[in-house]
Every structure is written in structure tokens, then in C-alpha cells.
Design goal:
Blueprint: H1 3-34, E1 37-41, E2 52-59, E3 78-88, H2 96-113, E4 124-130, H3 136-144, E5 149-153, E6 164-167, H4 169-172, E7 182-187, E8 198-203, E9 206-207
Helix pairs in contact: 2-3
Length: 220
């Protein structure tokens, strides 16, 4: 192989790495600013197929005596769920193979962490963030999966809003991890753009305010 070919190949690989890192950072910013997740980048060799990991902070279930949700959020009225995320900055649409890869990552994580954590304190949510749209077979596979899954489409561009989001029954249904209390709705209105919209999280029939604890306030 000629020196010029080697250089071009190296430049292409470097460009791919930079693009992937930039997409991971963009995904991280979105999840922390609008979806109540406190995550950190893993990346690099030995990451076990995980790009982002951390916690998803969602409201505690209302007790029968509570008529209205809290007006202020704190670590006492939000519960945390473990998040394992993969970020895919690819141009081709996401097919079911990518979903099966993420499922394998979750199963491996559960198997390897079980000896040191025999009674996990939080369910594991698998999160797939893609720069390209998800295919219908991918969505059907996610719907049938026993793994709690959240799929987020974050298209290229300056907008920080996701283009679509999908949660499967194992996550959002009444018998799922979130007990049917959280749903993904399509929102239109101020700040979204004329003729446009974005997916957003709703809890108990109202928009869910973004909240994460201050750094150091919760054990990681």
C-alpha cells in the first residue's frame, strides 16, 4: 500500500473517531439538559460496548393520599434508574442488528456485575441514540424485547432537540419498569419552531420537568 493511501486511510479512521466522539458529547448534552439523566462518557478500549453510563432520575410513584405531584424536585422524590447507552453516528438507518448488539451489552453487564451486586438498587435501562432514523424492523424488535429500551433519534444539525423517541412496553407499559406513569409525547409550541415538533417526556399526564441532582449529591 502506498504512503498516500495509508495516510488517507488513517485520516478517514481519525475522522470517524472524531465524528463518533462529537456525537457522544452531543447526546450527553441533550440527555442531561432535557431528559433528567446524569451520565458520563465511557468510550475507548475496554468500554464493554458502552458509550455513556449513569442515572435516569424519574419521579417516585405517587401514593394514594397524594392528589398532585410535587412542586419542587429533590433527591427525596426522584428515583434513579441505571442507564447503559450506545451512540451511533452512522448515516445508514438503524436496523435490528444494532438493537441485538445493545441487548447483548446489557446481558453481559448484568452477568458480570451480578457477583458484586447481588441485589441491584436500580433497574437497567438500555438507551440507543442514533444520528440516523430507525428502521421498522428495528422498532418491531425493540417492541418485542424483554429489555427496557429507549430509542432516541438525534439527527445531524444545530438543533439540540431529538427528532424522535420510542420506548418499548418493557419500559413504558403498565407492567414495565416505569409502571405506565411515563410516556413519550409529540410536542408543538413555543420554542419548537413553526410547523415542527419534538418528543418530550410526560409524567402522570403533564410535562416532566428536567431535574438531576447537583454533582456529589448522590452516590455514583
Amino acid at each position: 500500500m502506498r504512503a498516500t493511501q495509508i495516510r488517507r486511510l488513517a485520516e478517514g479512521l481519525l475522522s470517524t473517531v472524531h465524528r463518533g466522539t462529537a456525537f457522544e458529547n452531543r447526546s450527553l448534552s441533550l440527555l442531561q439538559s432535557s431528559m433528567s439523566m446524569s451520565l458520563t462518557r465511557v468510550g475507548g478500549r475496554g468500554d464493554g460496548g458502552i458509550d455513556l453510563t449513569g442515572w435516569w432520575w424519574l419521579p417516585e410513584q405517587l401514593s394514594p393520599s397524594e392528589q398532585h405531584p410535587p412542586t419542587q424536585w429533590s433527591i427525596t422524590n426522584r428515583r434513579r434508574l441505571r442507564v447503559l447507552a450506545q451512540c451511533k453516528a452512522e448515516t445508514k438507518k438503524m436496523g435490528p442488528a444494532h438493537l441485538r448488539e445493545l441487548e447483548g451489552v446489557v446481558y453481559k453487564h448484568v452477568a458480570t456485575s451480578a457477583p458484586s451486586h447481588p441485589t441491584p438498587d436500580a433497574p437497567i435501562i438500555a438507551l440507543l441514540i442514533s444520528a440516523s432514523a430507525f428502521t421498522r424492523p428495528c422498532l418491531l424488535a425493540a417492541h418485542a424485547s424483554p429489555v427496557p429500551l429507549l430509542l432516541v433519534h438525534l439527527p445531524p444539525g444545530a438543533s439540540a432537540a431529538p427528532g424522535a423517541a420510542f420506548g418499548n412496553p418493557a419500559l413504558l407499559a403498565a407492567r414495565g419498569v416505569l409502571r405506565g406513569e411515563v410516556e413519550v409525547r409529540w410536542e408543538r409550541g413555543a420554542g419548537v419552531g413553526a410547523g415542527a415538533g419534538r418528543p418530550a417526556l410526560w409524567w402522570c399526564g403533564r410535562p416532566l420537568a428536567n431535574w438531576t441532582p447537583a454533582p456529589g449529591a448522590a452516590a455514583q
